[in-house]
């Protein structure tokens, strides 16, 4: 999200909007043309585009959304039905695709949108002590679910969840209260995300080459890079919010012998 915000801000900040097109029912008649983009700022997984009229375009990527930048006059590209927002300036056209959250609000009301979020891993409000306090409130919750809860800390997603658990040797279903050195887990998440904040990728092995950038995520059934055991995968998370988690059963043994992991339709390979 930080990389997306930086790219959009570099292209749009200081530019006057010549045309806007909101392809969502609630804002289909909205028009920001004539307004100047002040900046684009991230907050966790939220993106705020602010104008000189005191308005903010708030978007959220969730799993599939993205913003594309295209040279003015080159068309929108891609699939038209995926477009949710179009912002045209003299040099650039910004195209928001598959964005599940699109809303306009007064800039002064931004704080209410993100009031529920925990400290932002890549933001100025980062506070590891507060994150540890929030984690401690749910000691029975699986650590893999807790670290991607944006109310605990804003920023980490599915890739970092799997990779951080692997690097710490922690089974993702270990209850928070049974994780050895929670502070080290939080610190590792911070370091991983800081290392990737300027490159637009999620590299955790130190090797950015295709197929080599991650330890376990996306590698179900492939051999562990450390021990050769096949990487496993399963769904985890509240109903309706399940995500696939990857882990090595050898390098990340259950905290308690005999603990059964909740394998689901996501499969075990």
Features:
20% helix; four-stranded antiparallel β-sheet; alpha+beta; single chain; 269 residues
Element-level helix/strand string: HEEEEEEEEHHHHHEE
| Secondary structure: helix percent | 10-25%
Question: What Rg is obtained from the alpha carbons, in whole angstroms?
Answer: 20 Å
Question: What's the end-to-end separation, in Å?
Answer: 30 Å
* Number of β-strand runs: 10
Low-pLDDT residue spans: 264-269
Strand order of the largest sheet: 1-6-7-5
Mean pLDDT across residues: 91
Characterize the largest beta sheet: strand count, sense, and whether it forms a barrel. 4 strands, antiparallel
- Our count of helices gives 6
Structural class: alpha+beta
How much of the sequence lies in strands comes to 15-25%
Oligomeric state of this protein: single chain
Overall shape: it is: elongated
What does this structure look like?
- There is one protein chain.
- With 269 residues, the protein is of the alpha+beta class.
- It is built from six helices and ten strands.
- The strands form three sheets. It has a four-stranded antiparallel β-sheet with strand order 1-6-7-5, with helices on one face. The chain has a four-stranded antiparallel β-sheet with strand order 2-3-4-8, with helices on one face. A two-stranded antiparallel ribbon has the order 9-10.
């Amino acid at each position: 999200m930080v990389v997306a915000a930086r790219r959009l801000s570099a292209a749009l900040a200081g530019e006057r909007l010549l045309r806007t097109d909101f392809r969502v029912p609630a804002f289909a008649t909205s028009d920001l043309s004539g307004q100047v983009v002040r900046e684009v700022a991230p907050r966790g997984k939220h993106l705020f585009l602010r104008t000189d009229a005191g308005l903010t375009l708030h978007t959220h990527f969730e799993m599939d959304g993205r913003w594309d930048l295209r040279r003015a006059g080159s068309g929108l590209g891609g699939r038209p039905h995926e477009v949710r927002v179009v912002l045209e300036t003299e040099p650039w056209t910004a195209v928001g695709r598959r964005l599940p959250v699109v809303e306009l609000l007064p800039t002064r009301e931004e704080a209410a949108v993100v009031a529920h979020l925990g400290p932002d891993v890549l933001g100025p409000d980062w506070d590891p002590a507060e994150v540890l306090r929030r984690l401690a409130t749910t000691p029975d919750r699986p650590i893999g679910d807790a670290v991607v809860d944006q109310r605990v800390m804003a920023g980490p997603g599915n890739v970092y969840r799997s990779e951080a658990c692997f690097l710490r040797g922690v089974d993702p279903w270990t209850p928070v209260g049974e994780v050895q050195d929670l502070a080290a887990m939080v610190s590792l998440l911070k370091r991983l995300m800081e290392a990737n904040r300027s490159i637009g990728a999620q590299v955790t092995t130190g090797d950015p080459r295709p197929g080599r950038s991650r330890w376990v995520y996306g590698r179900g059934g492939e051999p562990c890079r450390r021990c050769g055991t096949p990487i496993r995968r399963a769904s985890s998370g509240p109903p309706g919010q399940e995500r696939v988690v990857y882990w090595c059963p050898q390098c990340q043994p259950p905290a308690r012998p005999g603990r059964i992991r909740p394998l689901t339709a996501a499969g075990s390979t």
